[in-house]
Amino acid sequence: MTLLEARDVRVEFASRGRRARAVDGVNLAVGEGEIVALVGESGCGKTTLARTLLGLERPTSGSVRYGGVPLAYSSRALRAHRREVQLVLQDPTGSLNPRHTVYEAVAEGPRIHRLPGEGALVAEALSRAGLRPPERFFDRHPHELSGGQRQRVVIAGALALEPRVLVADEPVASLDASVRGEILALLLRLRAELGLSALVVTHDLGLAWNIADRVAVMYLGRIVESGPVERILTSPSHPYTRALLSVLPESPSPVVLGGEPPDPTRIPAGCRFHPRCQVLASGAAAEAGVDGLCASGELPVLPSSAEAQVACHHASASARREARTETEAERL
Asked: Entry's SMART domains (predicted)?
């Protein structure tokens, strides 16, 4: 069952007299009990998409759906939505009020939503987040905690509302390597114990490999490749995905992309990745006869699907060539 879904979502902002297309046609679904990683470099639109799914940004077009029902933007509807879909921020130091105790930080959500049994909810949330016994942490302030403990408090603040979906924006980016594994293990345990779903926003494909069921790779406002994490990360089809994977320590040959991501107010024609594409630059696209398409041929918006899919002229041409070869082999 699909819980949280973006359907052809577009989000634009005014920028120096032009319109910046931060999210430019995205279909993405998070199923019940599923962890989906949204991956891409800084500025690709993944945080804007996450904020839109939370109801913090309103799409210019398209819709956000929860449980199959389009999200309404009245105060009451947003209040109900944010109880079901909770945000976990990347910087626990910045997201926690230094003057509030741990108890006050975790109790803020239940108080806003006027939930009964505040003390029990706070204690249970802290316990589920791995801070035990919870009473020992009630009167502590953020500066008295380690980085991992602060991130657990942030997660407990989300769990106190008993949500069904967590949207975690770079949840371990500010943590030491030794603590990162603990937080990722916590998210997996919460999925196993509570059936929680999660959208994990990250630039780290290694994190996606360790935690996600599916991965969606985003570039300049669009999903360019998506599918099961094992399929996408062991056999990527899009040149951008291969470049992101190449920076992992075990990669034999790093791919250095030229330049910066294009200005979202001036998205290139054709494949939006083509000005930086190593396949086009190497001549492989010309050999396949798709170099003209790369520079001018519009690519379709990928649908929401559990199957592996890619928006790339060269990858599509390669797939067609392989299919023809298999057909010919079967005939023989």
From this structure: AAA
